[in-house]
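Intended use. Records like the one below are meant for learning the mapping from a protein sequence to its folded structure. Do not use them to infer anything beyond what is encoded.
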Amino acid sequence: MSAIPLPWQSDVWDGLNRRMEQGRMAHALLISGDSGIGKMRLAEALAQRLICSAEMIRYACGACKACRLLAAGNHPDIRVLQPEEPGKPIKIDQVRELCDSLTKTSQQGGWKVAVIAPAEAMNISATNALLKNLEEPQANTLLILVSHRPSQLSATIRSRCQKITLPIPNTAEALEWLAGVCGDPVAAARVLPLAGGKPLLALNYLQSDSLAIRQDFEQLAEHVRCGDLSTLAAAQQCQKLDSGLAIDWFSSYVHRLATTDLADKPNRALFDFADKLLRARGWVASGSNPNAQLLWEELFMDWALVFTRR
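Structure written out for the chain above:
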């Protein structure tokens, strides 16, 4: 089945279609924005539209030879590059192999498209390997970088891409879509705020145990805050979590705490800790592979100190 852009992406999609029709498609796009809003969906829809051999339509037809090959997972001219394991970096060998494939002639006689997601997962060596391809683009070749945190990409990479920044959709549009997909307007209205207004993240919460795991983590942080759980015990319980994702949960929890329960109790240390979480997220995203136990021990120790040094 062909990917179709999400409702809140219609204006961006119209612009991309105009570029295709006018032959002005860039050789590299950087699609950025928060996770959980459909950046990958847009990238996939665009890749499929370019590969599709049908003429003068807005979306991939799903019926031509190219679309059938794509549906079977056998289309030779479209590649998706992601970390080999969640939370791991994209390595130089992966990027070299991708770049090598992009220099070759299209096997189906049309476009060649590659999607790298998330682009900030590339380590320094992988980033440098990609630069040559960006500096010497091939005809009818599109590289799509999907990024949750474009500031973590090198300035050189960003400068060579046409940028598309996707905002979080407005609540009414997100809620209408989510309720339609899950079939439960009440559940959609309950979960969407917990997901920060991000509809695909909210859908993931509804379709998996992700929300329960997140709530367990927040309860863990609450126990440390109240002194009911040691920092060591808390860190041990976090070792198997995706560190980057859990740090995002921690940041959201701290923000919510600062703007609700602690709104009338100013605490400078709370904001200093929020900055530390941002730095820790950068360490994880950089691919430096910090020891999970030590990382969480340090974070929870600092978290406990926020409420003991007043």
